[in-house]
Design goal:
By secondary structure, the protein is α+β, with helices and mostly antiparallel strands. Among the domains are: 3-86 and 97-173, no CATH class; 280-388, Leucine-rich Repeat Variant (Alpha Horseshoe). It is built from 16 helices and ten strands. It has helices spanning 3-18, 34-43, 52-55, 57-61, 104-122, 139-145, 201-205, 223-229, 251-254, 281-284, 289-295, 305-320, 326-332, 338-351, 354-364, 370-385, and strands at residues 23-28, 72-79, 94-95, 128-131, 150-151, 157-158, 166-173, 211-213, 216-217, 245-247. The strands form four sheets. A four-stranded antiparallel sheet has the order 1-2-7-4, sandwiched between helices. A two-stranded parallel sheet has the order 3-10. It has a two-stranded antiparallel sheet with strand order 5-6. The N and C termini lie far apart (77 Å).
Length: 388
């Protein structure tokens, strides 16, 4: 370790804390044995349509593909827990807690940038590359190696001090900050031990049984994947299991015993915005593109795009069991997006009634999208079977 490396290492924790992070650790860069597990996970198709994972498997297993000459990974965690409760159901939607406030990509990214700038002043010429979730970095694996916590059976990182309500970020650097394997600050010298024990609450709580084995999630079944990353039709068999979840799912974290240690995040970035917490589903069912972008500006919810988000909303209305949702679904049946129309048809079939049947029959006479026609046909059959 050079003098410059040593000087930076001594400042990593204090500067990270000053930048607003709640935990920090460092570990040396080396090929990950977890890369083989990732390859097997990909082979089984558990990544669903996230093909970028296949393309970037090499970088996932070894960060030196992203930053040639990288020698250390600075791993950081940022608490985002806020005390508000999720919506119980009915015509109120449920959005994952992490998306209630500001987009974490921006918040964590800006703090990483500030930290890298400060560290670079101590070691001129050093190279840093930041990563916030979207990069091909196995962030949870590295965070565990740096001693921040361990991957629970739901695959999220769990920390002893904050539970699992943390965002993760990394700085790759060509500095030798680990000194042969040691960590700093919240990290420690060795990878964190697993403290899940025999607990399987997260597995039992998953609505779709997406946690197919301890530490293994099948994305094709995961509500977070289905409502955010998935761009097409949600499989019909899974739609009732979404309940009122319209963006992500927190069920596996809500039941985790370690989250009894959660405490309110410092600052106000992640406090629930009025439009992101307890949203009215009927209001959202016919939201337009411009209104969608304005309402959720600066929020992670934009990730789902308007068509995907409204798809989720109309499914949730179908699950509400409330006939008062029918007029909004009838309007959604004329949406400009076939994806929305098809799911609105499914929900009308699920709620049933004369108004729903009439709207479906009228739309069937003019619909040109083949997938939507099939959804309408199936919904009409469901309406016919259901009592008037």
């Amino acid at each position: 370790m050079t003098t410059a490396d040593s000087a930076v290492r001594s400042l990593v924790e204090t500067r990270a804390r000053a930048a607003g992070f709640d935990a920090v650790g460092v570990c040396p860069v080396e090929p990950l044995t977890a890369g083989a597990l990732l390859a097997e996970w990909l082979r089984l198709g558990y990544h669903a349509e996230m093909r970028w994972m296949e393309r970037h498997l090499g970088a996932c297993a070894d960060p030196r593909v992203l930053l040639p000459g990288a020698r250390s990974v600075i791993c950081l965690a940022l608490n985002y827990w806020t005390p508000q409760a999720h919506a119980a159901g009915g015509r109120t939607g449920r959005i994952s807690r992490y998306a209630w406030g500001a987009d974490y990509h921006r918040v964590v990214g800006e703090r990483l940038e500030a930290l890298a700038t400060e560290l670079a002043q101590v070691a001129p010429g050093a190279t840093f590359r930041r990563a916030v979730d979207t990069s091909a970095v196995m962030e949870k694996v590295w965070a565990a190696r740096a001693g921040l916590g361990w991957q629970g059976k739901h695959t999220n990182l769990i920390t002893r001090r904050l539970g699992s309500w943390v965002f993760l970020g990394e700085l790759l650097t060509d500095l030798d900050l680990a000194g042969g394997g040691g960590g700093v600050g919240g990290g420690g010298a060795r990878p964190h031990a697993d403290h899940c024990g025999r607990c399987v609450r997260c597995i039992d709580a998953c609505p779709t049984r997406a946690i197919v084995a301890p530490y293994v999630v099948d994305s094709k079944l995961c509500i977070s994947y289905l409502t955010i990353e998935h761009r097409g039709a949600i499989p019909r068999a899974l739609r009732p299991l979404l309940g009122n979840r319209i963006f992500g799912c927190d069920d596996c974290q809500d039941v985790c015993p370690w989250n009894r240690f959660a405490r309110r995040a410092a600052g106000g970035e992640f406090l629930a915005r009025p439009g992101n917490h307890l949203p009215d589903l009927i209001e959202l069912a016919t939201i337009g593109e411009a209104e969608f972008r304005a309402r959720f500006r600066g929020s992670a919810i934009l990730r789902a795009k308007r068509r995907g988000f409204v798809r989720n909303v109309v499914v949730a209305l179908g699950n509400s069991g409330d006939p008062a949702a029918v007029p909004a679904l009838v309007r959604a049946l004329a949406d400009g997006e076939p994806l929305v129309r098809g799911h609105a048809a499914w929900s009308l079939g699920r709620l049933g009634g004369a108004e729903a049947r009439a709207a479906l029959a009228a739309r069937a006479a003019v619909e040109t999208d083949a997938a939507t026609v099939d959804e309408i046909r199936s919904a009409l059959e469901e309406c016919t079977r259901a009592p008037a």
